[in-house]
Amino acid sequence: MGKNDFLTPSMSESHQRQMQVLGQNPNRIIDGYSEEFENEFLDMMKRSHRFSRVAATVVYNEYIHDRHHIHMNSTQWATLTEFDKYLGRTGKCKVEETPKGWFITYIVLFYGYVILLSLLYLFEEVPCGVSVFLLSLNFAANCLKNKILFFLYRFA
């Protein structure tokens, strides 16, 4: 066998092309993987643990059981703890740190409520008791935009 029969992955032409693309716009690539990781992780929460308080490591271990999963080291989060805190900050999960580790509970958002709060926000009529407004303003804006686009497309 010759010395080139077993090239290391970093030497392959494919790997060189991928590194060139990453070098041109690293944030776009990482953001894409982060979004996909988050969506798949939350989909698993919705399906398997919709109304349960569960250890974050349990959900993560179920997630990585799928051989086609997005690896966390491809995302913006270096650790599961960072990701858990992100889910809590954005209001997608209720997050609790306990002596036994981090526990998460999926938050079921009702689209009508999110849209209502979005409209109230737009007209600066946010009710005073809303502690973490909309839990995620980003989510609400996307939800509202998607609903409007859906109706425009459907009835146009």
TrEMBL record:
Residues 17-116 form the DNA/RNA-binding protein Kin17 WH-like domain. The chain crosses the membrane at residues 102-123, 129-153. Coiled coil: none annotated. Pfam families: WH_KIN17. It comes from the Eukaryota. The keyword Transmembrane applies. Keywords: Membrane, Transmembrane, Transmembrane helix. This is DNA/RNA-binding protein Kin17 WH-like domain-containing protein. It comes from Salix suchowensis.
